[in-house]
Structures are given as C-alpha cells and as structure tokens.
Amino acid sequence: MAGKIGLNITQICLPRECTEDEIIEEVLKLNEDPRVHGVYLHLPPASLTSRVLNTLRPEKDVDGVSDLNVGRLVRGDMSQGFTPPLANAVMELLARHGEQSPIQNHGREMSGVGPLTAALRMRNVVQSSSRWAQGQQYRPWTLRSLKLQPLSPVPSDIEISRAQTPKPVDQLAQEIGLLQEETEAYGRTKAKVRLSLLDRLREQPDGKYVLVAGITPTPLGEGKSTVVIGLVQALSAHLKLNSFACLRQPSQGPTFGVKGGAAGGGYAQVIPMEEFNLHLTGDIHAITAANNLVAAAIDARMLHEATQTDKALYSRLVPSVNGVRRFSPIQIARLCRLGISEIDPRALTPQEVSSFVRLDLDPAKVTWQRVVDTNDRFLRKITVGQASTEKGHVRETQFDIAVASEIMAILALADGLGDMKTRLGRMVVGSSRSGQPITAEDLGVSGALAVLMKDAIKPTLMQTLEGSPVFVHAGPFANIAHGNSSVLADKLALKLVGEDGFVVTEAGFGADIGMEKFFNIKCRASGLRPNVVVLVATVRALKMHGGGPNVSAGSPLPREYIDENLSLVTKGCSSNLRKQIQIAHLFGVPVVVALNVFKTDTQAEIDLVCQMAKESGAADAVPCHHWARGGRGSVDLAQAVKQASSQPSHFQFLYSQETPIVEKIRMIAQKVYGADDIELSPEAQAKIDYYNQQGYGKLPICMAKTHLSLSHLPEKKGTPTGFTLPIRDIRASIGAGFIYPLVGTMSTMPGLPTRPCFYDIDLDPVTEEITGLF
Amino acid sequence: MAGKIGLNITQICLPRECTEDEIIEEVLKLNEDPRVHGVYLHLPPASLTSRVLNTLRPEKDVDGVSDLNVGRLVRGDMSQGFTPPLANAVMELLARHGEQSPIQNHGREMSGVGPLTAALRMRNVVQSSSRWAQGQQYRPWTLRSLKLQPLSPVPSDIEISRAQTPKPVDQLAQEIGLLQEETEAYGRTKAKVRLSLLDRLREQPDGKYVLVAGITPTPLGEGKSTVVIGLVQALSAHLKLNSFACLRQPSQGPTFGVKGGAAGGGYAQVIPMEEFNLHLTGDIHAITAANNLVAAAIDARMLHEATQTDKALYSRLVPSVNGVRRFSPIQIARLCRLGISEIDPRALTPQEVSSFVRLDLDPAKVTWQRVVDTNDRFLRKITVGQASTEKGHVRETQFDIAVASEIMAILALADGLGDMKTRLGRMVVGSSRSGQPITAEDLGVSGALAVLMKDAIKPTLMQTLEGSPVFVHAGPFANIAHGNSSVLADKLALKLVGEDGFVVTEAGFGADIGMEKFFNIKCRASGLRPNVVVLVATVRALKMHGGGPNVSAGSPLPREYIDENLSLVTKGCSSNLRKQIQIAHLFGVPVVVALNVFKTDTQAEIDLVCQMAKESGAADAVPCHHWARGGRGSVDLAQAVKQASSQPSHFQFLYSQETPIVEKIRMIAQKVYGADDIELSPEAQAKIDYYNQQGYGKLPICMAKTHLSLSHLPEKKGTPTGFTLPIRDIRASIGAGFIYPLVGTMSTMPGLPTRPCFYDIDLDPVTEEITGLF
To answer: What PROSITE patterns has UniProt attached to this entry (chains A, B) (predicted)?
Structure first.
C-alpha cells in the first residue's frame, strides 16, 4: 500500500524480428501495469501496424501514435494545444539532452526524428504526465440519479427493485471518481473497490460522517437501514450533495428463515436487492471458509498431538525436504513467542522441541466454534469426532451463524491488509492445559487465513434505487461483536465524497448498544470522528415504551398501535427517546431524530414526537417518508442533517482504554444503560483476572446485552432504573480487539420456523426473475 | 431460454417538460435492455444535447444521431454506404407508410423531416438490423497468444503463474466471439458466461469433442489436468486452432491440506492459479449454502412435526394473510404428488391435511448430509440437536466435503436453468416412516435452492498460461458421483470453437471410472458424442502396474521408478494400459495415448510405451513435455489428436437404460473392470428392489469404487482377473439422476495431516503476492 510518487515512462524497443503478436503482448502488459504511467513505442515503421497502435491505451500513449494514426493531432491540434512558449521549452530541453536524449538513442530504427516530431513527442509526454497527475487527484462527481416514480399502494420490495434498472456499476464507479484500475466488477451491478484508493486520495479531506442509530426497537425492527438509504437518496438525488451509504452485509441464513432480506425496503432500497441479499461478492463465504479452516486445524492438531511422540511430531512439522530442514516463517513466529531464538531446526533442545510441537490445547478450553451461513438450530450443540478414524477423541462443540465469527469482526475493524493479517494471527482459539492462550498463528494457519480473506477486505460498491452509491461491507453481530459496517468502507467513502459530502453509516440495534460500540470500539479503531447522529424512532416503538401492550413477530399488532394514542407516545418520548438522545450527547455529538413514518401514524402523533425530541435536546426532529416516497420523502431529514453537521461536534470517548476492565463495564452500565451497578459472577471475575494477567486489560468493552431494553431484561421498556446489571461471564475476541461481557444468554444460531420464507422463494427459469424475496 | 426472433425497434418520445437526466435515464434503460435492438430518439431539438446523444449506444442507434452529432455521416459516408437502389427502396417504403409512418407520427416536435433525413434514418435502420443479425451469428476468433519462455529448472507453480500477465478477461471474451452482454466479469481475470449463448449459436455446428482420461493412477496422480491444459495450449497457441479446455473446479479444502491446488502445473496452468484454487466465482460456496439449507430444513421440519398437532402445523404452513389462506406453488406441487387436486386450503379433509403437513421423515432414513468445503475429519460422524432448544431430538449424522453434495453432481449434469431446478426439486433427502421418498420440493425448499444456484450455473471463463480459453465449472466427486466437469461448459465451448475447433474436457480418476461415467452418464445426459479419447499414462504408473514396489504420498520413490527399467514398463503396458485402451474401444471411440514425460524417464522407456500403446490399438501414442515446455511440448499430441479426430467414431453406450439395475452393474463389472461376476449384499439387493418399486430402475449406474485398481482392491495393480466385485450397498442421487453402488468404503471427508499445506501459505500485505500455493 506504500505510495508511489513520480512518473514512470517505459519504452518499447524490441528487436527487428519480433512478430506483431509479440509486440502486442508487450504493449498489453504495459497497459495493465499500474507502475507504468506512459509508454513510448520505438519500433521499426513496419511494426507500427494499426493493430499495434490501437492496442496501446490512449492514457499511456506518450508518443501520440494513436492520435497520429488517425491524423487528427497533426492537422487539428497544433494551433491550440502546442503554444510557442511550450514548443520553445521543449526544443531547449531536447537541445540540452543532446546525444543523451532517450528519443535519439532509441529512435535509430525510425525514419528520422525532426524537431517537429520531437516536439510533438514532448508535448505528449507533458500531456501524459498531466493526465497521470490528474489521475492521482480527487475527481468531482457527475452522479446521474435514477428517476423514481413511487406507486401507491407500495409494491413488494422485489417488485420495486426489479422495476428499476441500475446503472452499470462501472459507470457508477466513474461517476464517483474511481479510476478504472481501482474497481473489480462482479457482474454488472456489483464491484469491489481496491484499497489503493486510500493512498491516492490520502491528501483529500474527509466528508461529513453521519451515524444512524435507533431508539430501543420492538422485535419487528424500526427501519434504520431504510433511513440510511432514504437519507442518502435525498442527499444525492434531491439536494445534489455527494453522499454515500455504508451498510452491513446481511447474513444469508435469515433471508431464508423469518427475517427476509436487509436491502432496505419500499422505495429506499439497495438494488438489485437479490444480489444484495444472496452471496453478494462472497465475503461471508470467505469468512466461513477461513473460520472453519481454523476449527479443522484445532481438532486435527489435538488428535495428532495425542497420538504422536514429540519426535514424530517434530519430524512431520519440520520435515526434511531434499535433505534440508527449515522452519516456515509462521513457525519462526511461534518460536519467538516461546522465547526460542534458535532457527536451525537441528539445534533445538528436546525441551524446546517439545514446547514447539505441543500446543497442548485443553479440549475443554477451546473457544473457537465452527460457523455456517444457514439458520441451522440442530448445530447449536453437537458432538464431533465420533468416527472411528478419530480414535475416540470426541468433543462437544457448536456451530454459530457465520456472521458471529470473530473473523467478521476483524473484517469490520481492520484498516488494511496488513492490519487484518496481524489480527487474524493473534486470534485466540483456546488455551493450553497450562493456561497459555493459543493463537491462529500457533496453529500455523494465519497466512492461509489472510489468503482466504484477500478479496473480502475490499468493500463492495452497489447503488440505491435512485442511483446513489452504497458500500456493503462486513456485518458483525451486534451483541457478541460490535455490529457496525466496516472501517474501510467508511474511510473509502469519506475520501470519495470529498470535503462537502456525506457518508451515512449504520450501527446495529439501539443506540445504547450499536452507537455506544460505534463510538467506543469502531471510532477508537478507525480514528474517525462522527459529525451527526441520526436517531431513528417510530411511533410504534415509542408507544411500546410508553406502556403499550407486547409487540411480537407473527402476531397481529394490538389496537393501541393502529389508533392514535398521544398519551402512550408522550410517555415513550419522555422515557426511551429522551434517554437515547442523552446517550449520544454523552459522546458530544449532535442528534437529529428521524421519525420513520408508518401509514397508521397520525399527524398529531408525528408532531408530538418531533416537538418532544427537540425539547429533549435533539438539534432537530423530522418525519421521513422514504419507504413510500424514496429520497423525496427524506429531503427534510437531509436538510436537518446538513444543518446539524455544520454545528460543532465535541466528540469524546466514554472511557479511556487505560481504565480497568471492571470500571469500563460499570461506566457503560451506569452511564449508558442507567443501571445502579454491576454484579460480576465468579466466572466473570476469574476471567477478568486472567485477561489482566495476559495483558488484555486495555481492550475496549463490547457488551453482549439484549437490544430490546436499555436494561438486561427485554420486558423492561422505556427507561428502566433501579437495576443491577449481572455479568454472567466474560469472553474475549483478541484478534478483533475487544472483551465481551455476557449479560444473559446470547443465541448465536437462529432457527427455522415451521414455515420459513423459502416456501415463497422461487426462480422463473425462463425470465430468471426471482419471486418471494422481501 | 426461449429464442427471440425478429427485431424490436423502440422509440423514445417523451413529453416536452422532461429533464435531460430523465431522458438519459430512459436511454440507459434501453441501452441495457437486451429485448430492444434499436432505438429512435424522437425528441425536441433542444433535448438532443450532446450528453443525450453520447449516451445512446452506437449499436442501438437507429437514427444515427451520434454520427450526425460529429458530422461524419452526412459529409463522408453518403457516397459509400447509401447506394441509389437502397435509397429508392427506402423512399418507396416511406411513401407506402404515408401518414402511418411512425417517423411522421412522432416527429412533430422536430424541425421537419426531409426525404434525405428520412432516407438516412432508414439506412440506419438497415444498418442497425444487420448489426443485430450479425450479432446473432458466429464470430471467428482472433485469439492472441501469450508468449511463454520456459525456464530451467522449472520454477514453482505460483512463480510461473505470477510471472505471466493474463489478458483482461473481457478481451479474451471478445477474442473468442462472446458478445459483451454474454459475460459477467468477476474481477479482471474471471468471467461468468451466460447460457443465452447456446440460444444465439444454436445453428452453429459443434467442434470436435476430446476427452482426457487416464490409466489407473498411482496415489500421486498422473497429470491429467496438465495434459488437458498443455494440449489446449498446443492446439491454440501453436497449431492456431480454436480450442477450449473444460476443467473441474477443485475443492478448496484439499488446497490447504495435502493435495495443494489443481490448476495444472509447471508451464501448463490456468492463470492466475490462486484465483482458480480459491473461491473462484463462488460456485462451491453456493452449493454449500444450498446443500445446508436442505439439511437445516430437514431437521427443523422433523422437530416441528414432532412437537405440533396437524392443526397447528397446517395453520402455520398455510397461514391466513390479510384473511386469505393460500397454498404456495411449491405446496401445490406437493399436493399433486399426494393426489390431492383441491387447492382451496379450507376444503381439505382432515386426512388430507394430515398427509399434507406430515412428511413423517424417519430420522434413521435421512440420507441427506451437511457439507463444508474444508478438510475437517472431526465432522465425519457427529451428533446434532443436543441443545435444550431441540428438546432431545438428537440424531447421528455427518458432514461431507462440499463437492460430494448431490447439488454439485446436478450442477455438472444440468443442461439449463429449468433442468437444474427440476433436478433440485426431485432430490430425495430420505424416506418417510411408511417408506415414501421425501424430496426437496416436499420440504418447500426447491425454489430457494434454484435461487441460490442461479449464478453457479454459468461456467467461469479463465485462460491458460498461453492465453487459450478455459471453462472452469463444477467438480463432482469421481466415486460417489460421476467426476466430470459440466455439460453446460462443454456445450458452450463446442459452440464457441466452431466446426473446426476442439474442446478438451477431463474425466476424473482412471478411464475405468471417469471415462466410463463420462460415456454412460454424462454423454447420456448431454446428448454429446466424443470424437477422441486421450489416455494419459506415465512411466511411473506403468512400472507400478508392471510389478514395481508400492508408491505412496509422502515417501520417497523407490529406485525402480528413478532408474530405467524396461521390463517393468513392458509389463505395465501389456496389462493396465492395454486394458484401458480396450475399455475406450468398447465405446467405439479412437484413443491417443499421451505419455506425460517426467525428467527421470529415459528415451528407451518413452519409445517403448509409445510402441506398445500403438500395438494395443491406440490410434497414436506420443510423449508430452507440457510441464517443462508449455504448449510447445505438446504439439505432437495436438497433431495426433487432430489426426485421430478425423477418423470415424462409432460411439455406443455400454448398456441401455432399460437394462435392469443388476445387469447394468454386472456389465460394468465384467466388461470394464474384468470381474468374473458381482456379489450383492442383502442390503444392496433390498435397495435394488426398493428403487425398482419407486421407478428408479432406468437410471444409469455410477460405481463408487477405488480408483487405484481396476478391481475393488487397491493393491491389485495391472489387470486383475478372477475376482468377484462385492456390492456392499447401493444409494441413489435421484436429482442428479443416477444410482451408485458402493464397492468398499468411500471417504467423503478428507482430513488434515500433521503439517498441512497451510504452514507455507502466506500473503504479503504490501505486494498482495501469495506464496506457498502449488
């Protein structure tokens, strides 16, 4: 990723006997080589065939041969581009070079280079250089919006998505200033964006950084993703401001279970929604492959250690290849951690050999689980190793859903390939019988993990229904991990939108969880500072917090949620909404409340929420109608966000990383959740002692708490008080870089209901149209 | 996939108040719409801005506006393209249309359409039509080869791969006559090819169809894939014949275990080899997701049926949505199979409801397994459902490696999206307590499977080290499945190479298994007929068959394999090689023996093999040096294949599908393997009775036998005789469409050794270069 400064002009000067094909092959290599900024074609005239000339990319054409070929340059352009002062400068330069001029040295095969030709060449060098230099700079956007004509009643998500033709993704990429070599298309509507962009635009100031969080939701969800998409549609298609949405990639499992897709909804969607919801560019599949390679390595290693002597293990781990025994780099890293400086395999003492070959993993202390991107409840607890080939080494373990993998959290927090590789290597998979943490690097697998993840680290570019750019990247769990999209997608987007642009990113769950982790974990990792928090509320959730009856998926909504009820709304606003605004203010960031309007909401209810939100300290509060009307329905929100982003933000962390683990947990519990105090189980206390001893005490905290209440009790709505937060256990994701206290039991594997979504999902084999996704 | 004949010319005629953006949006939609072959722009002159004019694709430009815009058409082309007879014809046509002319009807906003303009328009209609018609036809190749300069000693595979710059895949696609809309790039070096190609080129005669099979191999493998790649490099880069390699996608698991990659080797490789060996375009990941969705559906369904009444199940499976209960199409398919014609959910009798809602799967008779693309031996036998949420419904089951999934076999045999969907739906996952087969469609999951597999069905285009095209598609197991690359890749390639071109495809294992299945299963499914079989042999394997000592992975080769030993070679040729040639002749196809030369082979050994092969009936036999020298080292083989392909081929199946199951198995055992007879276990006999009863008797047979011997005993080399083939058990892949008798135990999950390949695999985070893949 190191920056390359300067200009690299290469000459092609092949022997006379080269065939046309061989020349073209050379040209194509140079066309593709990003290190070469321009090419001279110094060839015998007979070799300068039109095929050769047409092969060289115009932007690399220093000689202007492709222009000369069609005769335009000589006849038309001399009077305009090639001014007398420039011509003089070029002549002077040429004269100064004298015999040393590369043009004269290598031009011997040509028919004679007169001053005009030489000058033309120099002009082309200058043009080529300035083209290159411009290429390194920021390019203003020329975003073309897609027209939206919302229908009423609003059709199904897949129908809306299918009715809109997305721009070709290479066109979108060009519109937002990406260079051709910075994207890798995956089909016509998705492209991965290379991280080299960060290097090219490193001097470019970032845009405004907007976080979308929510109040404590009902189990049905309150539409944060649609708010993100609607807001970006409004900012880009209606206010004509550069803006980018950064979304999490959804797990594919729930798409076929109960939840359905996650590409937004109604007229605020990422399109094509089926591409968004299925496979995408394979990142989650790569995570699954990497995660399960670690798991296979763990069990196989325990078996091999249990059935082999030190000597046998050593002769296999460090085999003689053509008579030479050598440690691999990954093995040398393990030797270093063991304090063994010897790198000649023959020179290790038997004790050193033993400590090198035996990870001595305690089967009862393996914390690494297998994963699968399917809602498969029967894998929640399993016994493995029951075939006779595994010689009785059975073990109880479990599968989690793929997005619960620590590798997903790493993908979301890494700020480059090197950082990702380091984090993958330091992942702790369990501990030895003597209590030492065992890492992925100890297993020898960390290089392979980086290889498996090399493409997953590039964010995927897609677009909204109105043609605004979207990055989809990473989707870690919001309880056992931090629940935010990736640091890298946000960073790339902030450079691309430019100083006056907006990047809107999303945090999972309610603000007490997703936003708190966004600030304390993600912003700490990235160094980025948010300008505005958009807090999403719904009348439905506010009524629930105000004392409305239970809301649950699959049951019809009680009357209170359909009819106007200002009293419930008032109580909801003065409890949960007010508290969540206060939480954002703890971090010093202005808040705009976005009321996601449902068709059953009355004007009086809407007005009441907006008024009370502002009374509670929100910089502004506006209703949004993006679901029914697209970006046009979120223009007020966009204006409010733009206004709030010009206010000063005084961002601060809730705690310093130097604060002891227990104190960090207590601060979150008291200041964010409103608990009186915390209560540690003996297991939790023992783990804290262990983590402190291992040097993990400075890691930030990632609370694994229900999102359905500010407290640990899902049924406590509003602003619960007078409770003590129980810390049942504590775990650590050392690679991702956080410690996660468990408050209650977290399910890491969803199940399938009696009638999963898949009953309605179908594909027409003739039209290739998908039905039933939502 | 139905063909579209005729020309669809669309007009854009928008209201005056349309903005430029709105017009461009319309144009872009029509640009992208494959159903529209040409576009008229009937717009007010003020709207015909250069942005609008430049947006319309030239090939869709019926008005020639983009030409008019740059002024070339009027000034330059009239005298050439627009002959007086054509002008007259156009005038006549216009006159006949009179007031009904669409041009006059919609041209009211324009400044007046004179005869010249009208004529120009018509000329452009004609041009546009003929462009379209040409687009539907075969396009001759203009393949550019990549120059290869082999080094000695031969560097590592990854070094060779990295040293060559592949052509951009869109360029390769264009060179071999693919239209832009027929490819979907996945990065710069891989592209999926759409099946619509088959429709466009349906009238185009197929090229020659060459199968590469092998003699019975040593456990080290004899290099069939490198022969395929070397042969295609020779045919295309050296003989300048259109040719295509069709390869199987390797499982990713073994890449990190013992085997390493499968992109060929030395100077006969698919590049970039790391892309070939990792993720590729996600097909195996899609198979994993689809396979495991079925598995999750099975266990969840058994749990739901076990814990709910008929009524509860019915009300959940056919819920009331806004007061209406309705069966989904997948449920109606199940009703049909049950013989229930009623489609009003309220009208079913209680008995009908019960038989509809209860699959009544017998847990002991579930045959569907979960899969993972990782070598994870601890998943060979597991117990699932041990969490308390699964209420004691534990069950023993297993994971297989992903490529062992029946869905992989279906991908390889399907001849279109519709066929794949049908096969996915009819997959049998187990049987009910009353012995009825239960299908994926009964589970309601078949539509979702087709959706998950919609992109996997498109073959992936890559290239060899010398720039020849390669399809990588599907990679079913060669024992429990048929071990061949996909029917669709072969079909696409046969159309693309054209009548005089060559498609070289590969069968797994030795010819007794892979080739027999290629003929009896794959050719039966595809209707394709092979022209030549290339039979790969090595001196090493021949010596083994001649009585040489044991060869095993990880141990040094005994001296017999390094020193010249004509006696062992002779015995090997007269046993295994001769027999495998005879097997190919059973099917009426000429054989060319390709001796894959190793550096320890002597000239006398090489000559001996070639001589004896020809004596055994091979049309030709030649040594190949592709590993060390690339295509140039396989030119002799290419010439021999070209020669043999001009011989008549009298292809015939070994058995008719009407032959009873037992007889089919016996014919394979006796005629192909050389067994005296077969011996059925009682389980096998019972299964045959069951399959006959279920109507599966006409399916072809897919033997699951060791590949290390013609017999069932891996240690029996050469041409074993005097043995009886034991059929231990019989299983069926009803979706894929074959019955597979088990001869011995087949491992469907590899393990990791003490020091897996991953110890050496690494990624440089700065250069992004991968090391350690081979």
So the answer is: FTHFS_1, FTHFS_2
Q: What is the pLDDT of residues A206-265, one digit of tens each?
A: 999 999 999 999 999 899 999 999 999 999 999 999 999 999 999 999 999 887 777 889
Chain A, nearest residue to B375 by Cα: A296
Three-state secondary structure call for residue A178: coil
Residue A327 appears among annotated catalytic residues: no
Contacts of residue B349, defined as CB under 8 A and 6 or more positions apart, other chains included, come to none
Instruction: List pLDDT tens digits, range A503-545.
Output: 999 998 999 999 999 999 999 999 999 999 999 999 999 999 9
Residue A49, burial from CB neighbour count under 10 angstroms (0-12, 13-18, 19+): middle
Q: Which amino acid is at A525?
A: A
Which of these, A552, A634, A659, lies nearest to A245 by C-alpha position?
Answer: A634
Residue positions counted in chain A:
774
CA-wise closest residue to B528 among B209, B243, B200, B194 = B209
Contact assignment for A451 to B773 by CB distance below 8 Å: yes
Interatomic CA distance for residues B653 and B220, integer angstroms: 31
User: Could you give the domains of chain A?
Assistant: 20-161 (no CATH), 169-281+456-645 (3.40.50.300), 284-453 (3.30.1510.10), 661-743 (3.10.410.10)
| B460: β partners | B192, B472
The answer to whether B47 and B56 have CB atoms below 8 angstroms apart is: no
Q: Provide, as residue numbers in chain B, all residues whose Cβ is less than 8 Å from the Cβ of A317.
A: 754-755, 759
SS3 A244: strand
CA angle, corner A196, sides to A190 and A200, nearest 5? 115
In the residue annotation, A723 being an active-site residue is answered as no
Q: Which of residues 669-698 of B touch A (CB under 8 A)?
A: none
Spatial CA neighbour of B38 closest among B102, B168, B130: B130
The answer for residues whose C-beta is within 8 angstroms of residue A248's C-beta and 6 or more apart is A262, A472, A473, A474, A475, A476, A483, A484, A485, A506, A508
- Conformational region of residue B208, where left means phi above 0, alpha means psi within -120 to 50, and beta covers everything else: beta
Place of tokens 């105000």: A546
Query: What is the 3-state composition of chain A as percent helix, strand, coil, each rounded to the nearest 5?
Result: 45, 15, 40
Residues of A in contact with B334 (CB under 8 A): none
- Tell the residue number behind the tokens 């209960």, with chain if given: B325
- A451/B contact by beta carbon, under 8 A: yes
- What whole-number distance in Å separates Cα of residue A539 and Cα of residue B233? 67
Which tens digits make up the pLDDT trace of A730-770? 999 999 999 999 998 889 999 999 999 999 999 999 999 99
Dist. CA A282–CA A393, nearest whole Å = 34
Q: Which of A185, A330, A420 sits opposite B185 (nearest CB)?
A: A185
At A320, which helix (H) or strand (E)? strand A320-321
3-state secondary structure A699-716: CCECCECCCCCCCCCCCC
Helical residues (DSSP H) of B35-114, grouped into ranges: 50-55, 65-70, 72, 78-81, 84-97, 102-106
Q: How many CB atoms lie within 10 A of CB B146?
A: 22
Q: Are strands B532-537 and B208-214 parallel, antiparallel or unpaired?
A: parallel
Structure tokens at A647: 């206010």
Strand positions, DSSP E, B579-723: 591-596, 620-624, 677-680
